[in-house]
Amino acid sequence: MNGRTIYGLLSLLVTAGAAAAQVTSGIAAKYLGDEGIENDPRVLFVENFETGTVEEIGARWGHIYLRENISLSQDVHGGSPGERSIHIRNNGHLFTHPQGVDTMYARFYVKFHEKTGYIHHFVHLVADRNPKPWPKGGAGETPPGDEKFSTGIEPTGRWGKYPPPGVWNFYTYWHEMETKWGSVYNGKQEVIEPGRWYCVEAMLKANSSPEKADGVQAFWVDGELHGYFDGFRWRTTDKLKINSFWLLYYCTDQPARHNNDPNPESRVMEVWFDDIVIATEYIGPVQGRPAGGAKKARPSHSALLTPGVLVPEPGAAAFEADFEAGDGGFSGGRVVEGAGGDSKAYSFGPKGAWIWNRFGVPVRESTTVRMRLKALGEAKQAIILIWSKKNGDNCRYEIGSLPKDGWRTVEFRAMEARTGWGMKGPSLEGDVMDNFKIIFEGGEDDRVLLDDFVILE
Ligand SMILES: [Ca+2]
Ligand SMILES: [Ca+2]
User: Fold this and answer.
1) CATH number for the domain harbouring residue 444
2) Ligand 2 center from residue 423 Cα (angstroms)
3) What is the rounded distance in angstroms from the CA atom of residue 107 to the CA atom of residue 276?
4) Is the domain of 228 the same as that of 336?
5) pLDDT digit string (tens) for 393-422?
6) Is residue 448 one of the residues assigned to a domain?
7) Per-residue pLDDT tens digits for 434-447
8) Which among 271, 273, 279, 275 is positioned nearest to 299, based on CA atoms?
9) 201 C-alpha to center of ligand 2: Å?
10) Contact 368, 316 (CB under 8 A)
11) CA of 74 to the centre of ligand 1 (A)
12) Which residues have beta carbons under 5 A from ligand 1 (an ion)?
């Protein structure tokens, strides 16, 4: 069984005393009004929306989606040490990357509009081996155990049992989840009151070693433990760290249908967030007032904005082909003029371009493949294939369609290439890369240009 569920504090006190002790004290208790909390070594990220424009907030988080639906608001919670919150209507998100850790706590304040409807998806904590500035999809796909796991702290109507937005639950994806649509973990069934601010906290703790099922997730509402679930083997490698925070407000008409909402057209889909703290230990609600009245935290920035923090920097070039003095060992196409200026490129058709035994590069975390591609005709479903001796199969890196609008740089870490359509099988990591092939879907006469191919150690 994946994940043992414990309802209520009483059973929790018996079986998990250490976790229960955290309910009464947290990092916030040390910093009145959160003043200076960003300086605590356990704190990874702080955002109180007191500093900067929405654009500047999006820039320091690293990704903002549907900016036009996001604004700053003067609506703040009763214990707020500041004067502004952030407001999202209909759909939108902020997405960021704290430093990667084995245990992450995230605290946020949230208020739903008093006429709120049901919500499709909400705030997520994510562990991603190959973090990108933007959140990846993955609905309906079981992630590989060395690649990704995630949990969403979400309001749910539980099929119409509760009025909108419902009760809190976890919506969880990992390699051992029970269905390809994830697993749901219900905590205390306390109805969320629309129009009222709440302090919500979620914790995700990775399993301590790949074979142990001792991972945990838990959530608190206004400082009270409302859900605690353990027994998870979240990951198969401890190189996979919890490193992403997704302040998501995703609305569709689906939850209104699933919950038999009698009047979905009367709903106002708006939400406010404030006073976000992400840390490696329990935080707790804002305590007391700042010494100097109102305060502004020094804003945090995404760890992805500092090269080498979350993803190792690529090393030296182990192989290069610029096609100026020949095919460089590539087959399947031919060298042509036309890469811009005096440069030459390698032109190939849908059956592809490939190269074998001209290099032998051990695939480490930093190993990176980079190239420029230009479609001269139809070029759909471009895919890179790298034969893996270790896996006895091709590892794939799916590029997708190449638009006919000039050169595009494609860069990926070699370990992102995986077997199986959808790239959900074993990775190329740990193999020696000695081959490369790129194909696409197009007509017989359609061509793609390849140039500046490089493998970095
Ligand atoms: Ca604020
Ligand atoms: Ca060239």
Assistant:
1) 2.60.120.260
2) 30
3) 5
4) no
5) 999 999 999 988 899 999 999 999 999 988
6) yes
7) 999 999 999 999 99
8) 275
9) 53
10) no
11) 8
12) 48-49, 82, 84, 274
